[in-house]
Q: What sequence folds into this?
């Protein structure tokens, strides 16, 4: 099960790279905010169809969730707008490596302190070595451009 989860997140990560490659040119053609909006419009329609086809038949209202959990939706548009603007400037590889570096740093903090209700997973030497490799990759890619 753990291996399948790892494979799925790698595939999802590949999808983010494709998304970055598409958003940069789209943003230059139609404008950054329209590109962001079109992405989320398509995602909303697809999520709605998935919900209709495979969602629970008696769903619980999302208004019953704590308000702070709904604020995650604020982060997506910021991420997409930044990706749309920077990808044509620095390229998909550097953009995605920078995103990965930010994700790893914040993920280590979230896991270590058990933020947002996730189980605590203390940062250890292996995590820090992996973070060092991500930082080295970011520096090498940035230096090669």
A:
């Amino acid at each position: 099960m753990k291996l399948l989860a790892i494979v799925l997140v790698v595939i999802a990560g590949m999808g983010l790279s494709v998304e970055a490659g598409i958003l940069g040119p789209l943003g230059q053609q139609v404008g950054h905010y329209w590109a962001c909006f079109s992405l989320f419009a398509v995602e909303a329609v697809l999520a709605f169809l998935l919900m209709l086809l495979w969602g629970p038949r008696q769903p619980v209202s999302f208004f019953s969730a704590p308000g702070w959990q709904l604020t995650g939706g604020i982060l997506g548009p910021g991420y997409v707008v930044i990706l749309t603007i920077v990808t044509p400037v620095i390229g998909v590889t550097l953009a995605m490596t920078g995103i990965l570096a930010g994700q790893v740093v914040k993920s280590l903090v979230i896991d270590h302190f058990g933020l947002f209700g996730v189980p605590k997973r203390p940062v250890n030497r292996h995590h820090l070595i992996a973070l060092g490799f991500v930082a080295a990759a970011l520096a090498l890619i940035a230096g090669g451009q």
Residues 40 and 77 are 8 Å apart (CA to CA). The chain has one domain: 2-59+74-143. The chain has a mean pLDDT of 92. The two ends are 39 Å apart (CA to CA).
